[in-house]
Amino acid sequence: MMQSAQTDALRSTLRALVGEAHVLTSGDLTAYEQDWRKRERGRALAVVRPGSTDEVAAVVRACAQAGVSLVPQGGNTGMVVGSIPDATGTQVLLSLQRLNRIRAIDPANLTVTVEAGCILQTLQEACEKEGFLFPLSLAAEGSCTLGGNLATNAGGTQVVRYGNTRELCLGLEVVTAQGEVWNGLTGLRKDNTGYDLRHLYIGSEGTLGVITAATLRMVPLPAAQLTAFAAVPSLEAAVQLLGLAHRHLHAGLTGFEVMGDFALGLVRKHFAQQNVPFGGLSPYCVVLENSDHESESHARAQFERLLEAALEQGCVLDAVVAQTQAQARALWHIRESIPLAQAQEGLNIKHDISIAVSRIPAFVAEVDALLAQHFPGVRLVNYGHLGDGNLHYNVQAPEGADAEAFLRDQEGPINALVYAVVDRFHGSISAEHGIGSLKRDKLAHHKSPVAMGAMRAIKRALDPHNLLNPGRVLAKE
Ligand code: FAD
Ligand code: 2HG
Ligand code: ZN
After folding, report:
1. How many of the other CB atoms lie within 10 Å of CB of 121?
2. Average pLDDT per run of 10 along the chain, which is 477 residues long?
3. How much distance in Å is there from the Cα of 305 to the middle of ligand 2?
4. Is residue 281 part of a domain?
5. Residue 433 within a domain
6. Please, are residues 180 and 448 in contact by the beta-carbon 8 Å criterion?
7. Which domain holds residue 380?
8. C-alpha 257 to ligand 3 mean position (Å)
9. Which of 89, 202, 292, 371 would give a disulfide with 299, using CB separation of 3.0 to 4.6 Å?
10. Tens digits of residue pLDDT in 447-463
């Protein structure tokens, strides 16, 4: 434990490195110390906001010298309690928010180089201005950062076409646990010169290095983007529709999301101004997107043929196709409002799982029945990225129950029930949100000892003194 004289000395050093105004030690630090889901509140020795890569490196070296650990943070929208300090008051919260420049756009190379603290939406807008799409999209895009997206290998709603953040990244700049700078911002699409370090840092949740910048892929803006919202009679039908959409739209299929009726009901309840179609008509709805590089009329004709085939086969009961960009945005907004509506409804249990798409209906039928049998009254908020086999199979306390007590008493047993079936279906207990501290102790039950051993060896090699986000992803050794 640090003595207060040592704490004061480190704070002074940090102030000298990044400026008085960028070392916060008092006032309301909730935005940095509490996680988005309000699951935990930590306490930082200091919130430090460096303004350049060199300052990040200097802060890491100063903390390493003092034996103080750091928690990197971007927009603090993470779902697994990985971006806030622990409760001891001994960790430095390293906010990357001031490193927010777009360094360069290279249209011929179809790349953009951006600093870690840049807000995702800011990057999307900058690319669009130049005629390009940066194809990462998620409901938190107005506040999450590229550094956080990379550190969690975020997914979102365009993965079915463009892949996770990993697939969009061609190079990184990283400050190591020793406070050195690795500049890997090559923008190369081919580079087989040994181990690809970039892939170690992507998805490492701040435990192996601090990402300070990245070179990312862009694609030309499509000529048209059409959105449809369809009521489907079952999850089986949703999977059937997905197959049809792949066959009719090919690479034009850029989004395919499923939403259970209860999840949509929460949007109706908490955001009454939104016009959610097909109330009560079907157990599930789907939102799908067709991006076309020819023309809007071509896109519409394709969409019409797809929906005709789907109605004929009975996998769609009814559908609306947005006629304007504003309507399309409104339909997407319904889908994106589900996590917020769920938060308004109260604390909840999240299962961010992936299963082979073909097996999702059987998985859901089995777990729905088991939960109803063992935890009567629980409300299932089931939705997600069906095109990627990724469900947010979330559980809300029974109507009127004390949500805090429900989580305290039932989260463990409910997790155990759901994850046991995930294992039997050879799925993953974290499809896109990561491990953080919330799932850390579960990891070893779901990964092989060989994989766990290799992960620990990598952590020891890159961060031998356990200074970077200790106790996240892997337990402290
Ligand atoms: P933070 O929350 O600040 O940090 C997340 C993790 O990354 C922490 O472990 C932190 O230590 C580490 N980290 C942050 N920056 C750096 C850095 N520069 N270098 C090293 N480590 C760093 N996620 C999805 O995958 N798909 C979704 O569709 C999706 N939708 C969401 C919707 C809502 C409403 C919300 C609140 C969250 C959603 N998320 C989703 C989760 C979250 O937004 C993403 O994980 C996002 O990528 C986190 O970015 P951030 O900047 O907020 O990171
Ligand atoms: C989404 O897809 C996010 O909306 C959040 O990944 C999921 O809140 C959740 O469970
Ligand atoms: Zn998601």
Report:
1. 15
2. 86 98 98 97 98 98 98 98 98 98 98 98 98 98 99 98 98 98 97 97 98 98 97 98 98 98 97 95 97 96 97 98 96 98 95 98 98 97 98 96 95 98 98 98 97 98 98 94
3. 31
4. yes
5. no
6. no
7. 346-424
8. 9
9. 292
10. 999 999 999 999 999 99
**Within a domain: 460:** no
Give the residues surrounding ligand 2 with Cβ less than 6 Å away.
139, 338-339, 350, 384, 392, 394
User: Residue 190 belongs to a domain with what CATH number?
Assistant: 3.30.465.10
> Which of 138, 258, 332, 428 to mutate to test ligand 2, by most ligand atoms within 8 A of the CB atom?
138
DSSP 8-state code for residue 428? B
Nearest-ligand number for the alpha carbon of 154: 1
- Do 34 and 12 sit in the same domain of this protein? yes
Tokens read off for 157: 């709603």
What pLDDT does 241 receive?
A: 98
Report the residue among 73, 98, 345, 354 best suited for mutation to probe ligand 1: largest number of ligand atoms under 8 A from its CB. Answer: 73
- CA–centroid distance, 291 to ligand 3, in Å, is 20
Conformation bin of residue 466: beta by default, left when phi > 0, alpha when psi is -120 to 50 = left
Tokens of 123: 């990057």
Q: What is the CATH number of the domain that holds 281?
A: 3.30.70.2190
Taken as a whole, the chain contains a residue count of: 477
